[in-house]
Amino acid sequence: MKSSQGKGCTMYFIAENLAEKHEFEAAFRCSLKIIDYSSFMTKIGKNNSTGSIMMELSAEGRVSVMMTTHNKQLEFFANLARRGILRKVEQLYINLDVTSENTTSQEYMIYLQQLKDIHSCGLKIYHFKRIRQLTYVSNRWITGRYVLYFIRETMDALPARLLPPTTILTNVTAVEGAALYHDYMLQSQFLCHDLVRVGQIGNGGWEICNDTDVRPAKECFVYSFGMNGNWAFEIDMIKKFGCTVHSFDQDKDLPSYANTSLIRRHLIGLWHEETFLYKNGGEKFRMETVKLIRARMGHDKVLIDIIKIDIGAAEWHILPNLIETGSLMAVRQLLIEVHVALQGADIHFREKLVILRQLYDMGFRLFWTHPSDEPSKTFRCSVNKKHTTCCYELHFVNKNHIR
Fold it and tell me: Partners of 92 in the beta sheet?
């Protein structure tokens, strides 16, 4: 959420669950006005007779609106937009649950027009979430629910928050480190206008920036470390971009994908030493650095369009080697999942922050982040007492390779 602090700041909640009300009050110091969900729905059902709400929204002051919604509420806010009332609103949040596998083309056109009405009053989508729990039975790549985050186009945008220099980061306290880390994970440092989801909606899917100046080249190369038990990402990179994909994973039980010659499978893992034999049970697996892999395959002079790294919590061991050896310099987009400890204070926040700052100094800019909201991966941080997640999927573009 963008900052809404300031004199006259007002937030409207149209929701069933107000558990986070006090956190919003503390974070933004706004006046919170609660609109009861059930009575709001009753008013909508009576020919949109919501005059009192409209009058309140027409009042002076800075207003943000949060809500839980279905198609009638989308229609209601489109009405507010057409009447000019939403021009008082700086930020708008819509939990959009209107489509199913049986949605007709006519219904889609109605929803698109309603979204256009909201956009036409000056609100644009700056972020969104796909809700994986409502993917279609017949197609797991499509979901019927999104959370849409709108912001007014004319609002002054502050520069993305930068991490302090490494000389300062090495001395931050645990509390400072936790706050810096989790705040930084939600920054946007590069505006990508055309996001393409590659792979399924849930785990195993990633966003690719498809803007003209950073999209994968016509003859693109992809390195994929960690298969997550399926070929969804790799197959979709081939279908959408026609890339040659090199996959690296020690999972011998994962069936080979033999329908195309564009996937090159390698039963080795990623490590921070040139060669390493990792013993798992009675088997040993070969581990190599990216630098060695690229040299061995003749790719040390080749621009890699996408490197995806999803290797459990080992990424913090790997990243220093990638940075020190310059293995990421010839990479256009970097996709990586990062982790922190679920329980207790993460004593390595300083080291993680230094690595993130080094990536920034190399030219890598966050264009998309996805915090995991799976119940097993969320927790209350013992350091700053906030409910947070252990895992983020980070999406970077390398500004040194913008065409």
Answer: 65, 150
Element (H, E) at 3: none
Are 324 and 359 in contact, with CB atoms under 8 Å apart? no
Instruction: With CA atoms as reference, report the closest residue to 353 among 370, 369, 343, 338.
Output: 338
Distance CA 358, CA 324 (A): 10
Burial degree of 7 (CB within 10 A; 0-12, 13-18, 19+): exposed
Q: How far apart are CA 164 and CA 385, in angstroms?
A: 23
Q: Which of 44-48, 51-55, 227-231, 387-391 has the lowest mean pLDDT?
A: 44-48
pLDDT value of position 89: 85
CATH number, domain 166-401, options 3.30.70.580, 3.40.50.9100, 3.30.450.20, 3.40.50.150: 3.40.50.150
Burial of 299 (0-12, 13-18, 19+ CB in 10 A): middle
pTM for the whole structure: 0.86
- Phi and psi at 246, nearest 5°, equal -105, 115
CA distance 386 to 388: 6
Model pLDDT for residues 57-67, shown as the tens digit of each residue? 655 455 776 66
d(CA 110, CA 71): 10
Tokens of 262: 């564009």
What region does 199 belong to: left with phi over 0, alpha with psi -120 to 50, or beta? left
Give the list of residues 6+ apart from residue 107 with CB closer than 8 angstroms, or none: 98, 99
Does the domain at 9-152 match CATH 3.40.50? Answer given as yes
